[in-house]
Structure formats: C-alpha cells, structure tokens
Amino acid sequence: MLAGQAAGVAAALAEPGAGAVPPDALVRAVIAWTQLFGIVSFELFGQFAGTFEPADALFGHAVAQMAAFVGLR
Q1: Is the pTM of this model over 0.85?
Q2: Contact 23, 10 (CB under 8 A)
Q3: Would you call 50 helix, strand, or coil by DSSP?
Q4: Can you give the residue ranges of every domain in the chain?
Q5: Which of 2, 46, 54, 61 could serve as a FRET partner for 18 with CA atoms 20 to 30 Å apart?
Q6: What tens-digit pLDDT sequence spans the chain (73 residues)?
Q7: For residue 56, what are the contacts with CB-CB under 8 A and spacing of at least 6?
Q8: Are 42 and 48 in contact (CB under 8 A)?
C-alpha cells in the first residue's frame, strides 16, 4: 500500500521532461522532514525543558541522523 501511495505522489511531483523522484527516496524525505519538524516543534513549545536543554546537541544529532537516512551523509 505504501509503495503505491509513494509512486502516486512521486508521479504527481514529476516535472515534464525531468526524471521522477524514486518512491523510496520520496518516503525517506517525508520521514526525515516530519522528524525534523517534530524536533523543532518540541523546542519551540518547551517540550525539552528540564531534559535536553539547550537542545543544540540533540538537534545536531537528529539532523545528522536524518541526513544519513536520506543518503546525504
């Protein structure tokens, strides 16, 4: 089911004359984006208070992990 959904989204994003985004890459990018969006939201709304404060090291680690996950590192 996920493969079909990803293929549909990838096809919708494809520009005429350009190569389509591979569905697996699209899924990885969406997962990385939502993970980073979540950690930014946690920081903005004080969810790290009393734990990972300041959250700089945690955020840097999360960015590095997501970069590796999507193949940028």
Answers
A1: no
A2: yes
A3: coil
A4: 2-69
A5: 2
A6: 888 888 888 888 777 766 777 888 889 999 999 999 999 999 999 999 999 988 999 999 999 999 999 998 8
A7: none
A8: yes
